[in-house]
Write a structure and sequence with these properties.
This protein is an alpha+beta fold and 164 residues long. The protein contains five helices and nine strands; from the N terminus they run ααβαββββαβαβββ.
Length: 164
């Protein structure tokens, strides 16, 4: 009847088949990629942004911290499984100032992923032709070494790696 006609006329689903499993396709590294530490958002008005997350959305929001070496003021918004980092320019040479000139209302600036060995990551990434935006790691907002990977080598995303 109808059921047998549906069964014979229904398209066949094809499954992806591969001789190797996904995990076998990942090259063995001397370092490991960890969890998402934070998503950074550039904001033109830091107080308004803090108020949105704290007063409107009810999140736990840190105090503002100046990071002169990076040219930013930073505020962290605690989420259950990660954080948001609100970034505001500190000085005219701030990379966030130039970002906000192009993006007047702000927006996502970068993602930060933890690594277990930042020096090994740098060595291997350089071998794989991934550009790193500094010769040596700098101390980031969490007091740990960080590096940034060129967005053109990371599909348009500025990626920060942080020593776990």
């Amino acid at each position: 009847g109808l059921l047998s006609r549906l069964q014979t006329s229904a398209p066949t689903l094809r499954t992806l088949s591969s001789s190797k499993s996904f995990s076998q396709n990942i090259s063995s590294c001397l370092w490991k990629l960890g969890r998402l530490n934070h998503v950074a958002i550039a904001v033109p008005d830091l107080e308004k942004a803090q108020s949105l997350y704290k007063d409107v959305l009810g999140a736990q929001v840190s105090e503002t911290v100046a990071l002169p070496e990076h040219g930013v003021y930073t505020v962290f918004v605690e989420l259950g499984n990660t954080k948001l980092e609100l970034l505001h320019p500190l000085g005219e040479k701030s990379p966030i100032a130039s970002f906000l000139q192009k993006n007047k209302t702000g927006g996502m600036h970068h993602i930060c992923i933890e690594v277990d060995d930042i020096k090994a990551a740098m060595t291997e990434l350089k071998k794989k032709k991934i550009r790193i935006l500094s010769e040596e790691p700098k101390i980031g907002a969490h007091g740990k070494p960080v590096i940034f990977l060129h967005p053109k080598d990371c599909h348009g995303v500025l990626v920060e790696l942080e020593q776990a």
